[in-house]
Amino acid sequence: MKTMFKYFITLMVLSSWLVSCGDMNSGKSSKQGALSGNAAEKVYVAPGEHDEFYAFVSGGFSGQLAVYGLPSGRLFKVIPVFSVDAEKAWGFNEETKPMLNTSHGFIPWDDSHHPDISQTAGELDGRWVFINGNNTPRIAKIDLTTFETTEIIEVPNSAGNHSSSFVTENTEYVVAGTRFSVPYPQRDMPISEYKGNFKGALSFISVDPEDGRMDIKFQIMMPGFDYDLSHPGRGDSHGWFFFSTYNTEEANSLLEVNASQNDKDFIAAINWKKIEAYVNEGGGKKVPANYAHNVYDDNTHTATSTMKKEVLVVDPTEVPGAIYFMPTPKSPHGCDVDPSGEYIVGSGKLAAELTVHSFSKMLKAIENKDFDGDAYGIPILSYEATLAGAVKQPGLGPLHTEFDGKGNAYTTFFISSEVVKWKLGTWEVIDRKPTYYSVGHLMIPGGNSRKPFGKYVLAMNKITKDRYLPTGPEVTQSAQLYDISGEKMELLLDFPTVGEPHYAAGIRADIITENSKKFFKLEDNEHPYAVKSEAESKVVREGNEVHIYLTMIRSHFAPDNIEGVQVGDKVYFHVTNLEQDYDVPHGVAMIGANTSELLIMPGQTETFTWEPKQEGVWPFYCTDFCSALHQEMQGYVRVSPKGSNVPISFTLDGDPVDME
Ligand code: CUA
C-alpha cells in the first residue's frame, strides 16, 4: 500500500511539473484553439444587451461572492459576505457590524467556498443564494432581490466548514458539514487522543419557506473523519444527503501520508427525513452551545446578532437505518449527484478511476443487509453492492463533477489539467479538453438540480501562469468558459475572477431579474435614526455623544455646516438617502473617520462614527458621483476643545438652526 501511495505522490509531483513546463507552448496553442471558429461571437454580448446567465462565483480567501454574467464573463458586483468591504461599508457601518459577530467576537474575514441557489421541487427558484464560511464556521444567505447578505448563522461543534452549503430539493435545509473533526464537546485534551474522541458534526439548518429564516434543526455527531464535500439526493433519492469523507484512518499528523493509507474511504449516506422524523418526535439531545445568529432587516436597514445557547445533537447509532457508509476509493473529494438522483459520483483524488454509486442499488443493499462490517456502529455497505460503474482511466486527480441534464457528466482533473465529458450509464469518455491550468471546481448553470440549463461549463482554475498580462508575483485566478451544446466541448473564453473561487452557482437571468429591487421605499424605512425629509434633519447632543440626523439628495446634505462638536465626542452620522429613483446612491466620508465611507441606496439609512482628535473645521463630502454638482455636495463640522461653550447648531437650507 505504501508503494502504491508513493507512486501516486510521484505522479502528482511529476504531473504538476509537466503542467508548469508545458506552459510556454500550451499557452500559444490554446489561444489558437479559442480563436478557431466563432468563439468570439458566442461570448459577445453587444453594448446594452444582457447576459443569459448569472454566475455567482465564490471569492475563496476574499470571503465574498462575485456576480458575473455568462457568457460574457463581465463582473457586475462583489457581494460582501464574510469580509469587511470598504466599497460598501459592510462591517464598517453600525448597521452591518452585527453580521460579522461570532462566538469568537467580531470576525471580519472568512474563506467562502460553495454557493448554492435555493430550489423548489428540485429546480432553481432564484430566491436566495447560500454560501459557507470555511474558517470560522458560518453559513450566509444572500437575498437575490437585493443581492445583499441578509443572514449569517454560525455553526457550532464544527471546524473548517467545507462540505457546505448545499440545499435540499425544496430548500428544506441548507446543509453544513465539518471538514476537521474536533473534540466533542470542545475541550482541552491531548491531540494524540484524537481517535475515537474527535467527532465530525453534520449540521442540518432549516430554511423557513416564507422568509428564509435559518435555524439549526439538528447536528449529527459522526465519527472523527474529515467530511469534505456533499450533495443532496433528488428525485427518488430526495430525503437523502451524501457526504464524501477522507482520513477515515483518523490520523492527526502528516495527513498527506497518514490519511492516505486506506484503500477506500467512505461516502456517507444520510437519510435526513428519517432523522427529521426522529427529532420531531422528541429524539436527540439538547446540548449547551454558543453560536451567533445574525439577521439583517430590510425595513430597519439594520442587523441584529443573537447568541444561541443550545443545539440539538443526534447520535447516529440511535437512529438505526438512517446512516450508511459506501466505500469509495481513495480519499474522495467531490460527491456529486446526477439530475435524476440515481447516481452518486465519488472523485477519489488518488484513485485510478471514477467511482459511481447507484442509489437504487444502495437501497437494495440496505434491504439485503449486504454489509461489510461497521464503523462506530454505522453499517458499511459492501463496495460491489452499491457500485453502478466506474469511468476507467478518465484522467489524473479527479475533483468535481457537474451534469448537463442530457445524460452527460463533466469531471475536472486537477493533475492532468482537463475537463472530461463522459456518459452516465455507459461510463464511456466522450471528450476531454485541457484547462489552463489545474482546474478545481467546475459549474454548469443549474448543474446541482433536477433541471440543469446546460449550454456552458465554467472551469475555475487554480494556476494561472501565462494566461494574462503579468501583475508581479501575484496573478489573478482564472476561469474558463466552454460551450457544451455540441458533442465536443469548445473553449470560448478566459476571464479573471475575484479571490480564489471554489465553486459557483449559475442560473438563467430572467428568474432573478423579474424580482430585482430598484430602490428601498422611504415610507417603509423603520430605521430608528431615519429622517424622511430635510425639515426633520437635526443634530442632538447626548452627553459626549453627538447624533447627526443627516439627509442627502442631489446635490446637498442637510444639515451641512455643523458646530458645537468637541474633541473627545463620539459623533454618529445617521445618514438617509432621500432619493426615490433607481441607481441614485450617495456616499459620505469624513476626514479622519476610522471607518470606510458609506454607500447608501435610495430610501436607506446607514450610520458611521467619528471621534475627532483635533480641533478645527473639518469637511465631509459625497463619495459617489451623483450629479453634475456632485463636487458641491459637501459640508463642515466645527470641532472645539473639550468643555467649550460653543452650542450645537447647524445650517438647514442655508439658514442657521440653534439646538440649545
Ligand atoms: Cu451625492 Cu455625489
TrEMBL record:
Keyword Transcription regulation: no
Pfam families: nos_propeller
Organism: Lutimonas vermicola
Keyword match Metal-binding: yes
Keywords assigned by UniProt, alphabetized: Copper, Metal-binding, Oxidoreductase, Signal
Signal peptide: 1-22
E.C. designation(s): 1.7.2.4
Cross-referenced SUPFAM superfamilies: Cupredoxins, Nitrous oxide reductase, N-terminal domain
Coiled-coil ranges per UniProt: none
Broad enzyme group: oxidoreductase
Record's subcellular location: Cell envelope
Protein name: Sec-dependent nitrous-oxide reductase
GO MF entries: nitrous-oxide reductase activity
Gene3D superfamilies on file: Cupredoxins - blue copper proteins (2.60.40.420), YVTN repeat-like/Quinoprotein amine dehydrogenase (2.130.10.10)
